[in-house]
Design brief:
310 residues; alpha+beta; Phosphorylase Kinase, domain 1; Aminoglycoside 3'-phosphotransferase, Chain: A, domain 2; 2 domains; 5-stranded antiparallel β-sheet; globular; EC 2.7.1.-; transferase; AGP_Transferase; Aminoglycoside 2''-phosphotransferase; Aminoglycoside_PTrfase
Length: 310
Amino acid sequence: MNKIEIKKLITSQYPDYIITSITSLGSGYDSDAYLINNEYVFKFPKHELAARNLYKEAKVLLEIRDQLPIKVPAIIFTCEKENTMKFVGYEKIEGTEITPEIFNTLDEEVKERLAKELAAFFKSLHGIKLQTPIEGLEVDKKEKCRKEYEAVKEAAYPKLNEFVRNQIDTMYEKILNCEFTYTKSLVYTDFGASNVFFDIETNEICGIVDFGDIAIYDQDIDFICLLHTQEEGFNQNFVDKIIKYYGCKELDSILRKSDFLSFYSPFDYIWLGHTFNMDEHIDENINIIKNGIPDYEKNIEIEKNYINYI
């Protein structure tokens, strides 16, 4: 969308809102973001799935923003249509996203405090019971797996030999026959240091942004994402502190799920590439498995780690 189209869409819903400036903040797989009048961040979804996810994000934030110990974006503007959003406008959260460079300048006392604050954030988030049902918010683990399997077959099978296709079929058959037991809760799903806005003058957290993957799902996913996004800024020691202050009693289970996610990651990326038409993701990860799935025997035949699918 260009700036004229953006202004026209917003003012069609909010005719009294005077727009004086529009600044691009970037574009991702799901949406384009703009800073309007230097005070509100607007997100415009780029496809139907993103529009549905933006709807869920907005509805959840409207309900939970006063139930969390850290500030989250306040929803000011919405343009809703049939369980989707054409756009959402949030109050701008000040500060700078945490980068490895910023994180590494912090002393241990500050890191200790931040770990406690983030642990408290997750504890509160996981404990929230939504009062209003939101369509599509709860994710069924087996249904998620089935969708990934179908995407892998469609995107990768024409480029794989029979041996590898049989390995994949067996892996998914075993996962789909599992009886999963896990704690369901409201989860952020894709948390990393870049989602934390930080005041480098006061060493205080200003807020947490980007709830686009909010869901009701396996509670462990938030800790696993922390373990898998350490290159964004949070090191292993800091992630361990968050988990400790959270009071997690199932650390071994989290680590097993994290290990299986590492094994499963080529299929995760093939699904991502298929969903968002990113051929480079598909081809790169087909190359990883084209001669056989790495560590297949250990994870599927010997140790049966597929029970740790997440």
